[in-house]
Fold this sequence. Notes:
Elements: H1 2-23, H2 31-52, H3 54-83, H4 90-97, H5 103-118, H6 121-150, H7 159-189, H8 191-197, H9 202-228, H10 236-261, H11 266-271, H12 275-302, H13 318-338, H14 345-352, H15 357-368, E1 372-375, E2 381-384, H16 393-401, H17 416-433, H18 438-444, H19 448-451
Antiparallel strand pairs: 1-2
Helix pairs in contact: 2-12, 3-5, 3-6, 3-7, 3-12, 6-7, 7-9, 9-10, 10-12, 13-14, 13-15, 13-16, 13-18
Amino acid sequence: MASVAWAERLDARRRQLTELVNDTDLSALPRWKAVPLGVVRGLFALVREVSDGQLTLRAMSLVYTTLLSMVPLVALSFSVLKAFGAHNAVEPFLLGVLEPLGEQGVEIAHNVLEFVDNMRVGVLGFVGLLILLYTVIALVQKIELAFNTIWRVENSRSLAQRFSNYLSVILIGPVLVVSALGITATVMSSAAMQAIAGVQPLGILITEISRLVPYFLIIAAFAFIYVFVPNTRVKVIPALIGAVVAGLLWQSVGWVFANMVAGSTRYAAIYSSFAIMIMLLIWIYLAWLILLIGANVAFFVQHPEYMNVRGIRLRLSGAARERVGLHLMQQVAQHFHDGHPAPTLDEVAGALAVPGNALGDAARRLEEAGLLLQAGEDGQLLVPARDLDAIRVDAILESLREDTDDHAIRRLRGSAAVETTLKEVDAARRERLDGRTLRDLLDLDADPAAVAGPA
Length: 455
């Protein structure tokens, strides 16, 4: 009996903790309470994302693509750096990435560089060169798809954008990395720096900072990836926070992997000569998983409203879809009526304090019904498709209730009384709205309390 009561109390405490973390309005709390509670909510969200399996699946698919594109990517980087006379920096960089593998990492790096040295572009021909470029671009494309899923972006870059953006990163990225390494080495070995290092305690401070340079470079590289790769606007501060978390995980997991996994003799005893390949696969998987976790951190920092949302699409009820869709049209119409710049979907979502993907389906339905129009060069701005007096509220609600699979039940053979009741409900709603238009909602919005929904 006592054990049952203890279990009930434990369950009650768990529910209270869950409600505190997930349902508390952080904006209503003082900053010293909101920040730690937001961090805890973010940790809960990260654990949920990893346990759901989507991140691990994405990391696994990237392992396969990485194995296919590793040699072509190093070959392209080697060719670009060779033009600048800095191709000798490829080997130290590759050794740094594979450092957690220990001696096996050195062997893998030498094998990859040997493959690159033996590659002859002239022998490949035009088709072979295209395949070489495709394998490299396919890797960046898969990374973009994984990041777009994390950032709830449903549209990928166009084919022309992929080639221009991907190739620019592939060709310029190695030069930037080597340049950063070269500048750092030059500054640290300069006469002025050596003179400063001779003065204590500045010398100790400079020595410690020099040890942190690899960490700073990793964080900078991760931040660049988080800003550039997703097909959406990523702010610098969230990207840096995600990069710091990923950089710390990279070094920590790398140290654990090197000391507990790669240094173990059990794998060699079990897998024999295949052990080096098993170690490589495991480390590449962990590296991609760390990169994706950092991207999740950056996403949650920029969009904290998504911490309680699962998946790229929300499954809203019919009533909730009508509610958010009507608020969406009202916000767009208000901007249009007041002469303000047309808002984007994310801006409307921010004003309504809801996740952006809660509005995506409603916006699509309204656009298909000819009530909403996407404008601007990139089609991100939202404007009313008609005059505000010509958009009836019942037409908005009808468009939000439409489903593309409704034809599947057009031959539904049910009770005539049920069908009659449903028609009466629709007629009563149309009669109640009595030709109310979108402009009427703007008039009502003059008093915010008049249209405020339930908390």
